[in-house]
Amino acid sequence: MSQPAATAESLAARPEWTRARRIVVKIGSALLADRETGTLKTQWLASLMEDVAELVRQGKDVVLVSSGSIALGRHKLGLPKGALELEQSQAAAAVGQISLAHAYQELAAKSGLTVAQILLTLGDTEQRRRYLNARHTIETLLELKAIPVVNENDTVATAEIKYGDNDRLSARVAGMVSADCLVLLSDIDGLYTAPPASDPTARHIPLVTEITAEIEAMAGDAGTELSKGGMKTKIEAGKIALGAGTNMVITTGKVLNPLRAISEGSRVSWFLAKQDPVTAKKRWIAGQLEPRGTLHVDAGAEKALAAGKSLLVAGVKRVDGEFERGDAVIIRAPDGRELGRGLSAYARGDAERILGRKSSEIADILGFEGGPELIHRNDMALNTRK
Question: Quick one: average pLDDT of 215-229?
Fold first, then answer.
């Protein structure tokens, strides 16, 4: 494995990369585990953590979505090559996850970083209550300057409730945390008109502004023994990311310091979103979710919302409907006007118990620590009309 070589095509990094404040990086099994021995590629992972440390020094948030637990675990358990039964995969994941987490912890520490492990299932990104819980955990870790390392919880997930690949999982995570950029580290330096290994006429596609049927047709299905994803799953991840307002870049991970290579203008394929993450999320809240309840606020809360503040429990006078944590609700002014919509941080029962109360009283009333916001401003879409 070598450092990326400068070429005549090398250019400065795109502004979508240099301006990104929050970046999600997906790392495939084939990059982390040696195909022949099944052991961890320690030198490569160390170089990646050096890149992450540099991005953090630049003031950026970084979230890693890492495969590798099954690939490492099957080697330690002596499982044969080829497809594994579900139970074997789960056992391999249980063993490999310990090794993977330890490696991240050790190599991150050498770069002055703290890492945290987060295991997700499909339901954690599909069910809004669990989605909020996962997002708040990641947000808190980032605030505390820790690097979340996310993986699918292969030890318990079954075929019916699995993503099956971390390309799409990483796109869901990118949307969950309103990332500006998703990086898919691959065994190839981007999207081609055809598989370049088998078609010498294949052309590299440096920029995609819309995922059309033609773009989808360019994606092949092939992965490797250690990697379940191919270009097809990366295009599917692109649909998810762009829909969430997140730009995506596909680049090779078969070099040392692959993120630094992006900064130095290495050849990649960019997929550009038409809107930013905040706009995309607010549009989703405002128009694509069925509201389950209504929050009636006082004049002070209405004024605070107009100033860009979160909706605090102290400013809510009444709730209607039956809703759970994470459900969409309507926000109404004292005169009944709809001010906007948002995702409730509390279920109705808990919300009713703390209405109008000070934040310092919430823990005593509910029996657990809860935030003062009934709807955080990041989970809210306000009407622009008066």
Answer: 59
